Every structure is written in C-alpha cells, then in structure tokens.
Amino acid sequence: MSEAATTAGEVVTASVADQRSELVNQWIMHHVTDSDSWHTILWDLHLPSWMSNNALMLIIAGLILVFIFTRLFRHEEGRAPRGWTNALEALVLFVRDDICIANLGEKDGRKMAPLFLSFFFFIVTCNLMGLIPLFSTATGNINVTFGLATVTFFFMVFGAMYVNGPIAFFKSFAPTGVPWPILFIIVPLEMIGLVIKCAALTIRLFANMLAGHIVVFSLIGLLVMFGMAALPALVMALAINMMEIFIAFLQAYVFSLLSAMFIGQMYHPAH
Amino acid sequence: MADSQHSAEHAHTLNEVIETHAVHAGDHHAEVNPMEVSGQMVVWTWVVFVLTLIVLYKVAWKPILSVLDKREKDIQDSIDNAETIREELESLEETKAQTIAEADEKAKSVLEAARKGAYTQAQSIEAKARDEAKIVAENASREIEASRAKAEDLLRIESASWARQLASKLINENLDDDKNRALTDKFIQEL
Known about the structure:
The complex is a heterodimer.
Chain A: H1 2-32, E1 37-39, E2 44-46, H2 53-72, H3 83-129, H4 142-164, H5 166-171, H6 180-226, H7 231-267
Antiparallel strand pairs in A: 1-2
Helix pairs in contact in A: 1-6, 2-3, 3-7, 4-6, 4-7, 6-7
Chain B: H1 2-23, H2 39-174, H3 178-190
C-alpha cells in the first residue's frame, strides 16, 4: 500500500514538474514574442488590435531618440562639447566616417549619413530597451527586422536606379567580360543575391536578439525549475545580459555597416 | 505518504502562482511562433522608422552634421593658418639671420679698418720718435765732440803756457846749477 502511494505521489510530482516546465516555456515565449498587451509589475496595458507590444516599443524607441538628441545633446557655440554630447558625437562621427563614407564614398556617404545614423541609433535603442525591465525587444521580432531590411532593399534598388539610372542598374546584374551563355545563370543569381542579402540582414538581427533573450530567460527559468540549487544560473544570466549590451551595439553596427556595404555595391557597381 | 502529498500540493500551488503572475494564462503563449509573419508589424516598422528618420533629420542629423562639418573646416583652417604662420616665421627667422650676418660682417670690417689705422699711426709715431731720437743723439755727440775739441785746445794752450812759465821760472832761478840743467834737459826731452 505504502509503495503504491509513493508511486502515486511521484506521478503527481512528475506531472507537476511537467506542468511547470511547460509554464516556464510559456513564460519565456511570452517575453520574447510580440503580444497585444504590455504587462509589467507596475501596469497591465491591453492594446487595441491595430497596435502591438513591439509597435509600442518602436514608438517609445523613436521618442527616446528624439528626447536624447534634443535634450541631452547640446551644441553651444564657442564651447567644447561635454558629457552626453561628446559620447553621442563620437558615435555620430563613427557612423558617418566608418560606415557611410567608408562604404559609399565621400559624396554619397555624407548625403546618406542621416539614413545610417537613424538605422544605427534606432536599432541600438531597440536592442538596449530589450535589456531594460518593463520594455521588450522590438528587434527580436522578425517583422521589425524585415521592415528595416526592406528600407535597405529600397535604397539598393531605387537608390541605385536614381544614382546610376535604370539601365545601368539592370546592367550591373550582368558583369562585363562574361561569355553570354553564362549570363543566363549569373543574372538570376545576382538578382536572388540582392534579396538574400536583405534576408540575411533580417535574420541576423532578429536571431541575435531573440537568441540572446531566450538564453537569459532560460537561465532564469532554471531557478524556477530547480529553486536555490540553480542559483549559479543567475550569475550566468547576469553575465549573458552584460554581453547582450555589447551585442546590442555590435548588431546595430553590423546592420548599418552591411546596409552601407550593400547599398555602396549597388551605387558603385564597378567595385 | 502525507509528506509527499503535501509537497505535491505545494508544488501545484506554486505552479498556479507562476501561471497567474508570470505567464498570464489565457494569452496562449505556447502557440505563439517567434517566426510568425505579420504584415501589420512590418507597416508599423516602416511608419515608425520613417517618422523617426524625418524627425531626427530635422532636430538632430542636419544640425549635428553641419556643426561637425563646420568644426572640421575650422580645424582644417586653423591647421592651414598655422602652416602659413610657420612659413612666415621661418622667413622672418631667415631675414633675422641674414641681418645678423650682415651686421657681423660690417663690424668685422670696421674693426679691421680701425686696427689697420692704428697700426699705421703707431708705425708713423715710432718712425718719428726714432728720427727725433737720432737727431737728439747726433746733436749731443756733435756737442760733445765740440766741447772735447775746445777742451783739448784749451788744455794745450794752458799746458803750453804752464810749460813756458815753468821753463821761465827754472831758467830764471837755477840756470847755473848742473843738477837743474839735467832736470831741464829731462823736461825738455819729455815735452
């Protein structure tokens, strides 16, 4: 009788553990996917159907950027920049010189700097917001990164048409000096490559953000599953979170840099 | 038996707590696919990104980039200015060195001329002094010669008169004496 009870108890415990791991799984997914509400421990906001959590995060990111560049960034005539102004200026200069001008050339680089500055600062803000409690990661949503990559695609196609003319744009798919039968293979490949570059941009940013957050939440989930025994996981979660700060900047840089490279290749097909 | 049932109940309660407070049951998260495609979200991204781009272009990128360009230009101008000033300084330095060299040359020539003049003057003064000394010496030796001749003459005249007087005295007093005669002879012979 005692044996049977123990088995029954174990079965109950096992089913409870299964249920809990299911709950932890749901908890993780809840935190890394888009939803129609914004729960925090402070408020519980249900959003209308045309809005979503990540859309709200995008809007907040935009507002944060406007705030930063109107309130924290100050240029005073005849005075050396200090503090925030200096830090932001260094980033602005870096984006302009090492991303735009380096890949697009002096003229186009300067002209297109605002686009890449927006890319960089918008993405880095979204990435960093994901690391702050209360906010979620909009760039961990594939639709957001797809939306951003289509902007790059737009400039790769229409920007190149505008700069080089439509004929030169289509000619750039057919490299000179190649025997004409080969062109039947190369031209479609080049066109597919154009799309794949943007798909790669989409997946790279999205997957990096999603994976990083899943790792952090999984490590914290271990605490829920195993209690105090999993306390070292919290230290690891903290370490991963620190690395995520670096990755937030790195991925924003990579996205801007690759966009600039791809657009630069389309603008200057000779290279 | 009671213990295991109790811990199972406790675990069950904990699950309920987790479900209520962390997972928000009813949201059906398990069915959510992180790769889910949603056109609405893409449109949101475009709208928000383009709006952010436009607003930031107005309030941030345009002023910031123009300030940065202006600063770059200012720094470049300062560098160019510094180069010009350096060149000017260099030419000034050259002029200075040239002036100093000229002054040095002039001073040297003046000194040389002065030294030459002084040497010539000293030479002429020496020659004049030598001539004068010669004249003085010649005059002196002539005078000495004259005095000597005069003295010789005088002495001759004097000694002749003395001899005459002596002779006359001897002659007058002791002409007879043989001894005196011999003496007189001796004197005469000695004269």
